[in-house]
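tool_call predict_complex ligand=NAP
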Amino acid sequence: MNKPNIAILGATGVVGGEILKILEERNFPYNEIKFLASARSAGKKIEFKGETHTIIEATPEAFEGINIVLASAGASTSKALVDEIVKKGAVLVDNSSAFRMEKDVPLVIAGVNDEDLKWHKGIVANPNCSTSQLMLPLKPLHEYGKIKRLIVSTYQAVSGAGKEAIDDLYDSTKASLNKEIYKYKKFTTKPIAFNLIPQIDVFCENGYTKEEMKVVHETKKILHLSDDTPISCTAVRVPVFVSHSEAVSVEFEKEITPEKAREILSTAYGVIVIDNPEKSEYPTPIEAAGKDPVYVGRIRKDLAFENGLALWVVADNLRIGAALNTVRIAEKLVEMDLLCHSERP
Ligand SMILES: NC(=O)c1ccc[n+]([C@@H]2O[C@H](COP(=O)([O-])OP(=O)(O)OC[C@H]3O[C@@H](n4cnc5c(N)ncnc54)[C@H](OP(=O)(O)O)[C@@H]3O)[C@@H](O)[C@H]2O)c1
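tool_result ok
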């Protein structure tokens, strides 16, 4: 196939908007493009590549003739539409959590486990944003030293929770400075302005949140780690608009000195090392926003483990954590000639 017909499902959302920007920046080759959202947005106009397009309601018929669907419309929408999408012969590249842990669905970070794309059956899942940015630096380190244990603490931007959450941070900060009462739309449990919230998604029976368990399960699936590899995560929402940060402690089977880690990461795909403590040089969310790489700094020996390494990992959650990886997966599917698929059982 030369150029695919593509549909952007969730084109009016935060991630959808980022996907459109990235398709344009990377000059993604396509034949036909459709912009899909809910009935609420049908008929509204959207700008893309200097032209005005009309948003179409995401009905099953809307996927007729489409080869790739880039979806960021939430798990329930993807679940409701997947059968029709796949039956019509398209590949669904999905940003939601709907299919990530299904056995017959590859969970892919482009540049990390592209080979897994070969066994897709019409669906490819994009990992959770906090897992995504972790995989690019961890993969080459794992190849060198083999991960034995992993502990991650996340500091996650509000844009990871969609449009309403961004509005909440902006409006509640203004209200708070003006000593006014603000009625939250997304952060209804605890205020986000001038605060931190140690809960992202709902709690599971084991006391961890679903977001934290996504990091545990998805990391094992992407890096092909054994089920009993000890991994734990604490996920915290912080009053930052864009870019997630992560404090990471890894224990390896083989020693990786900080110097060796810097050397490995300096040539790793999609990673940039900013690590000059004497000059206070390390990545921060503001510097990573709007950029493609995953930035790594504060590389040092983790004093708590024998072959331990501590890292600070920062990336734009809307790009590598969602939209950029979605577009990179679509590019790989075309490049690797993987758009034809057998039907799901
Ligand atoms: N934000 C992130 O960093 C991030 C990262 C990774 C994954 N994700 C996932 O990506 C998805 C979207 O996140 P977001 O932050 O972009 O949310 P958002 O800003 O709230 O956008 C949601 C999009 O989905 C569309 N939609 C909702 N219900 C629909 C339906 N029934 N049929 C068709 N379209 C429908 C909305 O269309 P209308 O405008 O018409 O309502 C909108 O385009 C979620 O599954 C989220 O978990 C987000």
